[in-house]
Design a protein that fits this description.
Pfam families: Alginate_lyase2 (PF08787). This protein has about 190 residues and is mainly β. It is about 0% helix and about 50% strand.
Length: about 190
């Protein structure tokens, strides 16, 4: 099996690179914790948006600052965990696109990881750690999704001039009332 990070250079990350976006009317510690290297993010379908002017769905996400890009080949790597019951939620995204807000969205529906609503990438992901690698070749306009080292998706991006990585929970369609994901060993690479 080939390691998707082969040939990439790590980008140094610090806690200051992790900007938490959470419902604007709730203290951060009521939707996010970082204990023993594990980021735990949760949100309720009845929560408000992340700003008073946003018309988007509830979220508690980390936007990785200092790694925005418009060209080159960039990669997100992290170990994710989704407890059973969480569904209808984006857990990772490549933000920035021409015809919508995102180039890629890894979502959870009934324990399956999907790219947007489909295709299903892998099933039975509840209650276990999985390794997620997302590679975005902005120059070629292509994205790849690896789960546990296996290539599960390759396809075109949706253009745009600026991108960034986000992870956590962001409500989508057919969501559960409570949505949670946990993340550890977050890394960004580039070529």
């Amino acid at each position: 099996m080939v390691d998707p990070t082969d040939g990439f250079t790590p980008v140094p990350l610090h806690q200051s690179n992790f900007e938490v976006q959470k419902p604007y009317d709730v203290p951060q510690n009521q939707r996010y914790s970082h204990i023993n290297g594990v980021h735990k993010l949760w949100v309720y379908s009845t929560d408000k948006a992340h700003t008073t002017t946003s018309h988007t769905a509830p979220r508690t996400e980390i936007r990785i600052r200092g790694c925005d890009y418009s060209s080159g080949v960039w990669q997100f790597e992290g170990y994710g965990y989704v407890p059973s019951g969480t569904t209808g939620v984006s857990i990772m995204q490549v933000f920035g696109a021409t015809h919508r807000a995102t180039t890629l969205m890894v979502r959870v529906y009934d324990g399956s990881l999907t790219n947007y609503r489909s295709p299903a990438l892998v099933s039975d992901t509840y209650n276990r750690w999985f390794r997620l690698n997302v590679i975005h070749d902005a120059d070629a306009g292509m994205v790849k999704i690896y789960i546990d080292g296996d290539l599960k998706y390759e396809g075109p991006d949706d253009g745009c001039k600026s991108h960034c990585f986000k992870f956590g929970v962001y409500e989508q369609n057919d969501s559960s009332n409570y949505m949670e994901s946990r993340w550890k060993e977050i890394k960004v690479f580039k070529k």
